[in-house]
Amino acid sequence: MAAPVTANAGPRPRNVIIFLGDAGGLPTLGAAAILAHDRPQSLFIQSMPHVGLSDTSSRNRWVTDSAAGMTAIITGHKTDNGVVSMIPGTAGGAPVPVKSFIEYAGQHGLSTGVVTNMPIWDATPAACFAHVPSRKDKDAIFSQMLAPRFGKGVDILIGKGRKDADASFAKGGTTPERAFAAAGYRYGDDPALVRQAARAAVLRDTDFAPLPAVEATIGQLARNPRGYVLMVEWDMHTDDPQAGLRHVVEMDDMIRRIAAVAGKDTLILFTADHSFGLRMGGGSRGTPLAAQFAAAAATPGTTIANNPVIGVEDGHTGDDVITAAAGPGAAQVHGFFPNTHIFDMLMTATGWPRD
After folding, report:
1. 327-343: per-residue pLDDT in tens?
2. N or C: less crowded end of the chain, CB within 10 Å?
3. Helix (H) / strand (E) containing 232
4. Hey, where are the domains in the chain?
5. 15-350: which CATH topology?
6. Are residues 115 and 230 in contact, defined by beta-carbon separation less than 8 angstroms?
């Protein structure tokens, strides 16, 4: 049974930052902590004061994909795998869009932002602002960035997918530069430009430094006296174990820094949309785990799947994932609950009624 959502008796947050570790399940967090710091439970995430465990199943599968997983978190509705912020219509009717917490924030006058190291049209960021029956419909997702179903759209967008945007907007006889400019955005490939514009879209096809991009985004969003809501996604898939675990540490360092500077009026929440098939199978204390993993990987016949130190079966899993929180409203995070409960907690913390 889900932990009950009770009225927020304390102060309400002015700002909300949702950190989403894509595929950041408990085994991945545990391995990253030891790999990076050679001691367990050494991530900042693992020190956050309020912790619960979230079920990640989707409406039609025990093991979710990112589309259904993020839809549940950000809208409070379970949906089918592959569907972005929509639910099935009644009596077999057309799918119905469901409003995201980001869209509620915009309608309440807050500034909003989405930052990701994945394509900006990918399932997790798209669930914040788009409503499509298929996560593969890039053209509809790009269109809804600029012509949202609810509200005025996300103010700051940072992610990958620049070539995808070029191809998508070309189908309509325009370019991303012209389309975003017509919608009131500054457009470019350098995250620093968000310091210069209240509405900006930064798309690129290469990695970017996470902390400067997030700090610049918060600096711009915080100019709104009513506050802001920001969603930051960082990919933690461990089909490449070293890259995935490095991304965990990147996000953890980011959360540590942002928690120190965001202010006491900011609710900070970390969660994952689903877990992944990583397991620590060995390793000795007293020797850096990274060295042990590398030595095992260099042994003839060792694969990513059968590495005896950290092995990965490439795929999503149905394990519960951690939700950790700090700041006003964070005390609601406790116990076991479905992923839809996270949306309920956010709405209770802010005091916003559902439409």
Report:
1. 999 999 999 999 999 99
2. N
3. strand 228-235
4. 15-350
5. Alkaline Phosphatase, subunit A (3.40.720)
6. yes
